[in-house]
Amino acid sequence: MGLDTVSWCCLGLEAQWSNAGLRGVAVLVHVTPRGASFLLQHRAVDRGADGAVVGDPDVPISLVTDVASRFCPWCGRDLVSWYRDVLDELTTPGLAIGLPD
């Protein structure tokens, strides 16, 4: 199987999955032997450009934030159920913060 066989639940999720690693909001898929997680991620800068951000060390900022989501924020479908047959194709390794691959 490949990405051409993915039946997306909606255009919103497809578009945001395509943004993984880029500045802004994206959807990540993280799969481990214990199960799958869908994450909404916001990046202040593109992946790899975080070294260019120089700020006041007394003012903490978050360059990347992940929030787990069970349901699609755009159409409401149960994400793991909808994508269970294509989870491996949708996996975005190395992009989730704080989660081992």
Brief synopsis:
The longest helix has 7 residues, at 11-17. The chain has helices spanning 11-17, 79-83, 87-90, and strands at residues 24-32, 35-43, 64-68. A 3-stranded antiparallel β-sheet has the order 1-2-3.
SSE string, helices as H and strands as E = HEEEHH
Multimeric state of these chains?
single chain
Number of strands: 3
Task: Using the alpha-carbon principal axes, give the shape.
Answer: elongated
Poorly predicted regions: none
Strand content: 15-25%
Give the C-alpha Rg: 15 Å
Average pLDDT reading: 88
Strand order of the largest sheet: 1-2-3
Structural class: alpha+beta
Helix content: 10-25%
The major beta sheet can be summarized as: 3 strands, antiparallel
Number of helices: 3
